[in-house]
Design a protein that fits this description.
heterodimer, A: alpha+beta, 3-stranded antiparallel beta sheet, 4 helices, elongated, B: 359 residues, mainly alpha
């Protein structure tokens, strides 16, 4: 580029730049002066976006206890404790009508560990996990940050565990007898075949 | 040249008057530095679509006080292997270089601390004293980043003094005088008498207007390099050299470097205004001379108002440029100073001197 062309280009671009900066001097500032103005107030474009990843919410009546969220979580902040629902007990279905296979005894999310990645949301098959826009939930006690979503009482949990254990023990006995019977039948057949 | 000084008229020619005259610019510089810190923070924020300091006082106006208090209460650290005497002397030397230029800057026709008739030469000379402070600070800190910053500062300031000098020389040729008050008095009248519009004269000055306008731009750019402002802030680095020549300084000494930079900004704006924009002349000439019966205090107030407003405008332009432009590379800086500014300033000086001779 020629000498004078370079000079002209330099001057022109500096002036263009200064024009842009001057325009921004008088344009609207994007700062939200929190805590005087809350970003979730519906005030123009200062709202927090609807798909912001903040505190998790778990709809307990939709949870099927599959543990997909537990496996998806990279920091292991979800704690799940389930017991199988015995079929002939009165098992209410889930909120969306699906059959309930598990009782969710404990469902805890430790928000001091949660990294708000949102990987548990697509991992949930029933859509029970949701991310909300709530971010003002700091506490003075670290233990208060462990959110318990299950509202089954301890006695209910113990009773269901007992029912399941009984059912499991009976099933094991029945299976053992059936195996013995099958083994005996197989031995009898072998003996008959050997006799022939 | 007669030294009309309103302080002498008020108090009489004694040591108290001299003390007041010396201290007045210092007070002004201190107040100006507070304002400039706030201005830089707020303007920087508005240029970047954000709000800046808002909590310290309404709209953050007490922020400079917070900054000064913060710097005052910081621990004063001296590196073990630093050269103690040079290390401690450097910030004060730089401030001396910055403040001594205030001795000849006229804020009004009735106030100039020292009315010598080689004022322009004097300003140019003491402007170089600040470089010694930078090099001392950079070398005495015993740190590779600081010495790099200091060396680059020397190269930059020395090479940009020549185009600045050529611009100043052209104005001296145009006004046939080195005395600052003389230069300003020649630009009195309405704003078309200012030197950027060719100085006093009739329509024949249309021939010299392009050259004086180019000289103004050259002088302004060189002065940015003199004060280490963006785009010439390589000595300060800030992302390359930690903080350049003032990396190792903390507390009051850093405050002095910081303060000298703002004082320097004001001085170069003031010189731009004096040389090209009529100094303390108002743009409407003698229109307001009769107000308040032509009282001396009104004339002084009006002069100071116009001078300070014009200088503050150029300080604002310096801040504006800081947030517009990226930083020069060292070789680009040298090429720009020696290959572009220098030849053009000499050519403009030739034509201005020619016009001054032929006029």
């Amino acid at each position: 580029m020629g000498y004078f062309e370079k000079i002209w280009l330099g001057v022109k671009t500096v002036l263009i730049g200064m024009g842009i900066t001057l325009k921004h001097l008088f344009s609207h500032n994007v700062t939200i002066q929190y805590p005087n103005v809350h970003p979730t107030d519906k005030a123009g474009s200062d709202r927090m976006p609807d798909n912001a990843r903040n505190r998790l919410f778990m709809d307990y009546d939709l949870c099927s206890g599959c543990g997909g969220c537990v496996r998806a979580c990279p920091v292991d902040c979800i704690n799940l404790n389930t017991v199988k629902a015995v079929p002939d007990d009165d098992v209410p279905p889930l909120k969306d009508g699906a059959k309930r296979g598990l009782w969710v005894l404990d469902f805890e999310i430790d928000f001091s560990k949660c990294c708000f990645c949102g990987l548990c949301v697509p991992a949930c098959p029933t859509g029970a996990m949701k991310m909300t826009t709530e971010f003002e939930y700091s506490t003075l006690n670290k233990e208060d940050l462990v959110y318990k979503f299950s509202h089954l009482s301890k006695e209910f949990a113990e009773e269901k565990t007992k029912i399941y254990n009984k059912f499991a023990a009976e099933k094991k006995k029945k299976d053992a007898e059936a195996k013995k019977a099958k083994a005996a039948a197989a031995a009898k057949e072998k003996a008959m075949a050997a006799k022939v | 040249m007669e030294n009309l000084n309103f302080v002498y008229n008020l108090i009489g020619q004694n040591w108290l008057a001299i003390l007041v005259i010396i201290v007045l610019p210092l007070v002004f510089v201190l107040l100006y530095a507070l304002l400039a810190i706030l201005g830089e923070l707020k303007f920087a924020s508005f240029f970047q679509d954000r709000l800046g300091p808002m909590r310290t006082g309404p709209w953050g106006i007490f922020q400079p006080i917070a900054e000064v208090v913060k710097l005052l209460q910081k621990e004063d650290i001296t590196p073990t292997a630093a050269n103690k005497m040079l290390y401690n002397l450097a910030p004060f030397l730089m401030f001396t270089g910055a403040y001594s230029a205030f001795a000849v800057i006229p804020f009004s026709q009735y106030y100039v601390p020292s009315g010598i008739n080689v004022g322009l030469f004097y300003i140019f000379a003491v402007g170089s004293v600040g470089v010694i402070g930078i090099v001392m600070g950079g070398w005495a800190s015993n740190n590779k980043y600081t010495i790099l910053g200091a060396m680059r500062a020397v190269a930059q300031i020395v090479s940009y003094e020549i185009p600045a000098g050529a611009a100043i020389l052209s104005i001296a040729a145009l006004s046939s005088s080195l005395s600052i008050q003389e230069i300003i008095i020649q630009q009195s009248g309405w704003f078309w008498n200012w030197n950027i519009f060719g100085g006093p004269g009739g329509f024949e000055k249309i021939w010299v207007i392009p050259f004086t306008a180019i000289l103004f731009v050259i002088y302004f750019i060189s002065s940015l390099a003199e004060t280490n402002r963006v785009p010439f802030d390589i000595p300060e680095g800030e992302s390359e050299l930690v903080a350049g020549y003032h990396t190792e300084y903390s507390g009051m000494k850093f405050a002095f470097f910081f303060f000298s930079e703002y004082a320097n900004m004001f001085i170069v704006s003031a010189i731009t205004v004096i040389l090209f924009f009529g100094g303390w002349n108002s743009p409407c000439g003698d229109l307001t001379n009769g107000w308040f019966g032509g009282a001396e205090w009104w004339i002084i107030l009006r002069d100071v108002f116009w001078f300070v407003m014009k200088s503050f405008f150029f300080v604002f332009v310096q801040i504006w440029l800081r947030w517009t432009l990226p930083r020069f590379r060292v070789d680009q800086l040298m090429e720009f100073g020696w290959k572009v500014l220098l030849p053009i300033s000499f050519i403009c000086f030739f034509f201005v001197a020619l016009w001054a001779m032929v006029r």
